[in-house]
Amino acid sequence: MNTPSATAGHAATPAWKEWLYTTDHKRIGVLYLIGSMAAFGVAGLMAIIIRLEQMDVGMQYISSGTQYNGFLYFHGAAMILAFLIPGLTGFAANYFLPLMIAARDVAVPRINAFSVWLFYFAIVLALLSFVIPDAPDIMWTGYPPYSITTAANTSFYVFTVHLLGFSSILGAVNFLVTVIYMRAPGIGWNQLNIFTWTTIAAFVLQLIFIPVLAAAVTLLLFDKYLGTHFYDPAAGGDVLLYQNLFWFYSHPAVYVIFLPAVGILFEILTTMCKNQVFNYKAAVYAGIWGIVGIAGIVWIHHLYVTGMPDWLRLGHMVTTLLISVPVGILTLSMWGTLYKSAITYNTAMMYAVACLYLILIGGLTGIPLALPSLTIHLSETAFVMAHFHFIMALFAAFALFGGIYYWFPKMTGRYADGGLATTSFWLNFIGVNVTFIPLFIIGVEGMPRRYWDYQMFPQFDGMHEIATYGSFIVAAGMLLQFANFIYAAVAGKKAPLNPWNSQSLEWTHTQSPPGPGNFIDDVVVDENWSPYNYNKD
Amino acid sequence: MRLLTATITMATTAMLSTQAFAEGNLANPPAAWEELWNTVMLDITIIGVILAVAAVWMLFKFKATSPEQVGTAKKLTAVQAISWALIPAAIFMADDFYLAAKGWTVWNDYRRVPENAMEVKVTGYQWYWEFEYEDGTVTDELVMPVGQPVVLRMTAEDVIHDFGLPHYRVKEDVMPGRITYIWINPIEANETIVQCAEFCGDAHSDMWTSVRAVPQAEFDAWLSASAEESDFDIDEWKASWTKSQMTAAR
Ligand code: HEM
Ligand SMILES: [Cu+2]
Ligand SMILES: [Cu+2]
């Protein structure tokens, strides 16, 4: 990934130093991409170990339950905090958001660089948990009292969250200021790319809710190491305070992942369908901002079986069901964008179509989980786990990978499409279904999540076995995928500047990759311009 | 138009079904669970099939025939745009309230404990369950007479656990310093399990024991046999309770 700046001007500076000291949003984006893909690799390996262990009843590969719990902790925490959030709001937003609004960089480039380095410190801290004795075994949710009474080092979890939270808050301020003040002349609010909207919505959520998470885990730290009793009922504290604070952040955090993924999906769909966004204003103001509006009043659906007062459980049942309104409007816009379109199929579009499938299954399986009277059985089962993999984990991961194929020619000047890409797509798509559909089924029958053993349910052995083979298929697909990315970056087919004939500014006005300052001439657009203006009559 | 009729039907059914409040099927919440589950599955299958068929049709129908071809969708007029937001929103909300009303009814079944329920105290420990019967007998499995509703008053000693009864389609967290409850109705003789459903550490996956529903005579015999072999001192156990637990227990 040679940017022109690597050769122009600073001939004396070695490349590694340029990358280390960079404040260029595109390079920072690439640094986020590398870090988040590394996290995905390690966390993916953990997923395979988890699946291998669950393949049969009894202990197979692990040496203790605690060791398994450490792997599961790492998988969950790293996938969310180090793969998806940095991949979407770090990589994709950094690289493409300034290009989409024709800005020359973000508002405060040095702070942007500081954000990415905080992220790397956090990754190092997280990885250290593999070498320290007593690695965290508290799951990504870290509920006390367990996270306090355990012998494991909860502090690693707390400090990782602090670093990433700090990084995200700085990023949020930076990007909000960038979008508000640095749009090229002529770009009005109703002409923004959907990805720009979803990114700022995600950052607004981060800005509002991260402090709550930071407080929650800080109190955890105090309780464990300084002898305070915020969460200790024996001394007048409350065990459920943490869960309330945690989910007050972490439900919105699901949207911090979901929304930018939706944004990428729209970018791919509109470009490959050569169509405008169906009902743009509804999608933006009712869909995206509707989700932001409702995000903070549904968290009790994660506490349906904690003995919360009935009025709270039923109140949040109603608000949770009402999420279907903004999500439904966004979904209709996706579907509508296909109508009377002119679709070109390529790897990015295949990922986009897969996302339509994932949002459908993942979204609809959320509806039973909105009802406390069904969740009273489904809570903490493999059904929940399969649901959130579909709607959050896999949907966002597929959108991100689709986005990588989509923007690959912009970042490298080369296509990543080809036989390897298609093969790995099908392996990934088939693999995730083979993994998670059996888990939906045994989940309804009562298979709990976070179990490495299931002596009480020997009859689930077969389904677990199928799920494990599914995860092998995904692993094969992902390995091929990464081989393909590396191959394509150095030897892929050369692509023109705007290979998909997109109307969006990152395609129409930049080099591949864009040089320092992004745009050769200042970009000015008029009020008829739109990133989705394909049908000119 | 069909959608509109469907909406109205759904909304009406929703209103009617709230009247079912009064007669809620108190005898057997798991049956109500299955019924609600089937309703919800039907509901989401209908939505899913409509959207899936529409998507597949468009994905084939609107394939570009040449690279220069562009989509021909027109920009929506203000009226169209607002209608395409408000009408779907109304449909989704109608469905939401329909499901909420159904869910609410079943919830009441789960929370309303029958008056003749037998009380069993449950305590979760890392990593086992303990049951205390009304006569003070302490056991490590849950045995109930068939046909006798049982209310479980639950707490935990160390960390959060969750008392999960997959057969009875019910679970609730058990927590230090708090007391929660669920009730079940063993309508037939059988042997099922209770499993821990909230992550609690090393042996979380092994924290399960049997739950048996047996004829009354067998239950009486089991209880007195358990009372004799129990060397557990309940007063000592209660003395170890934390202050907040005692407050909660009152
Ligand atoms: C595609 C490959 C993946 C596979 C095969 C996989 C598999 C699994 C499995 C087997 C579990 C544990 C089930 C249990 O509770 O016993 C799990 C948990 C989890 N996964 Fe994944 N996963 C994958 C990708 C992802 C991604 C992309 C994310 C991103 C958010 C993710 C987030 C999580 C989370 C948050 C948990 C819960 C951890 C916990 O219980 O604390 N997974 N996954
Ligand atoms: Cu949530
Ligand atoms: Cu447990």
According to DSSP, the number of beta strands of chain A is 0
Annotated CATH architecture of chain A: Up-down Bundle
Give the N-terminus to C-terminus distance of chain B in angstroms: 58 Å
- Beta content of chain B: 15-25%
Instruction: List the secondary-structure elements of chain A in sequence, H or E.
Output: HHHHHHHHHHHHHHHHHH
Q: What features would you highlight for this structure?
A:
heterodimer; A: 537 residues; mainly alpha; Cytochrome C Oxidase, Chain A; disordered N terminus; B: 250 residues; alpha+beta; Immunoglobulin-like; five-stranded mixed sheet; 10 strands; 22% strand; binds protoporphyrin IX containing FE; binds copper (II) ion
Written description of the protein model:
The complex is a heterodimer of chains A (537) and B (250). Chain A has a single domain (30-508), classed as Cytochrome C Oxidase, Chain A, CATH 1.20.210. In chain A, 67% of the residues lie in helices and 0% in strands. Chain A is built from 18 helices and no strands. In chain A, helix 2 runs antiparallel to helix 3 (65-100), helix 4 runs antiparallel to helix 6 and helix 15 runs antiparallel to helix 16 (419-444). The longest helix of chain A is centred in the first third of the chain and has 36 residues, at 65-100. Chain A is globular. The two termini of chain A are 39 Å apart. Chain B is an alpha+beta fold. Chain B has two domains: 24-61 and 78-112, no CATH class; 118-230, Cupredoxins -  blue copper proteins (Immunoglobulin-like). Chain B is built from six helices and ten strands. Chain B has helices at 2-18, 29-61, 78-111, 216-229, 234-239, 243-249, and strands spanning 118-125, 128-132, 138-139, 142-145, 150-156, 161-165, 170-174, 180-184, 190-196, 208-214. In chain B, the strands form two sheets. Chain B has a five-stranded mixed sheet with strand order 3-2-1-5-8, with no helix packed on it. A five-stranded mixed sheet of chain B has the order 4-10-9-6-7, with helices on one face. Residues 14-25 and 241-250 of chain B have low confidence and may be disordered. At the A-B interface, helix 3, helix 8, helix 9, helix 10 and helix 11 of A face helix 2, helix 3, strand 7, strand 9 and helix 6 of B.
